[in-house]
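The pair is set out directly below:
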Amino acid sequence: MDGSSCAASIIACYFSDFKQDQPALTEVRQACGTPLTQLCTGMLRYPSGVIGFRRRPQRLADTFTLLGQSSAVANIVMQLSLPPVGEGVSESRVVSGSPRRRPIKRGRTTLQYLALAVMGTEEDRAAMRQAVAEVHRAVVSTSDSPVRYSGNARDLQLWVAVCLFRYYLDQYTFEFGPLTEPELDTLVRAGEPLATGVQVPPGDWPASWAEYRTYWDAMLPKLSISADVHRDFESLADLSFLAESWGVVGRFVSAVLGRPYHWFTRANLPQHFRDLMGWSWTAKDQKRFVRILWLLRQVDRFINPWSTRIIYRLYIWDFRLRRGRGRPVLGRLTLSDAMIRDGGGSRRTIKH
């Protein structure tokens, strides 16, 4: 047995994603012999419970990938495609929680909510639930609103939570492929705190993947995007919304990162939502996305999920520190007489 040939074959096998029907496996067997082939299989094959050097997901904290860093706006598009949710956000007068006025703060509080739902204690979640409910009480429709909505409506928040679950599921399956029905059932059950954190009763959360799919499929015909919400999505996807709070710095960030971030937003969306937005997605785009996923997969086998767990732990630590000092965990609630989109909260003028 040639040691260098064996090592080279194992490396090639690893980076080909190791399927039994691939020539890579035959090459390893020829170069290394049966025992090392079995070792390689045990480390890298899906049936062993390991993908590369990652365990198969048994909780949402096992699904973290680098791709998740690019899919936040895509998930927002899913959530806000339900008209009462989209119009409620578009007509918001909550300055203190607006990404257009406090983008860093909004990013922090959103990640804290997710971190607590995925890795926090029941005490943490209860404190966050109370704070979120207070903010959502200020989000109610008026006589001029195109649809009726309430920020604490359980049916609307159930849809939001179901979309948040897709944030975790999609980032993993896009990179590492589909999960089995029992694995999906386990993750669905683990996702319940995403819903209970926004006043959804535990009994309303799907008990299985089959129930989840039934609910998801039933909701798709109810989705639509108004012109106002469409504009909001575009400004989020190309990062141009940052100019409203950061001025010239925000315009620079959008000019540099806006186009690639818009592309990743489209990449992370199911086709149904691209169609609602009128966004194109070509075979060339998909081929490029597959190549990027391959690269991310190689890195994520080594650095995730533990690296993202560290970030989540830091957000949980910050949440507990603020709460321990008696500070409002979501900050002081600030409202405007005008909608944020109409200039509420000292909006900066944007040069188009």
About this structure: The chain has 17 helices and two strands. The two ends are 66 Å apart (CA to CA). Residues 3-48 form one domain. Residues 61 and 118 are 6 Å apart (CA to CA).
